[in-house]
Amino acid sequence: MSDQERLSVFEAVGGMPFFDELVERFYAGVADDEVLIAMYPEDLTDPKRHLALFIAQYFGGPADYHDARGAPRLRQRHFPFEIGDDAAERWVRHMRSALAEMEAPGNARKEMDDYFEYAAFALRNRD
What CATH number does domain 11-122 carry, 1.10.490.10, 3.75.10.10, 1.20.1300.10, 1.10.10.350? Predict the structure, then answer.
């Protein structure tokens, strides 16, 4: 097993700066998406920080998200928003675009890409 395979995704991509930049790039796409941006508050500061902390923690980073917000409860937190196939597909498209702009090792990129697709479609709550 190589050193790369033993590292968490968080470690493989260089830690929190990677996730902060990924989220910035993601939200740049969301800001121009009329369907998704309607689900967000005008000030994206908190959503950006929450997403960066959550995905960093999910991929092996510190428990800062949990310490600040408690258990993720993703379905509960997202239920007030109408998330159908179109919204899920848009979310994945923007996240994949942001990820493609970043330099992440192949295994880390694949693991993140797989999770982002799974998570987006798992949060669907409308037909």
Answer: 1.10.490.10
Q: What are 53-87's pLDDT values in tens digits?
A: 999 999 999 999 999 988 878 777 877 888 999 99
How far from the centroid of its chain's Cα atoms is residue 98's Cα?
10
Q: What CA–CA distance (Å, rounded) separates 68 from 52?
A: 13
Q: Taking the model in full, what pTM does it have?
A: 0.90
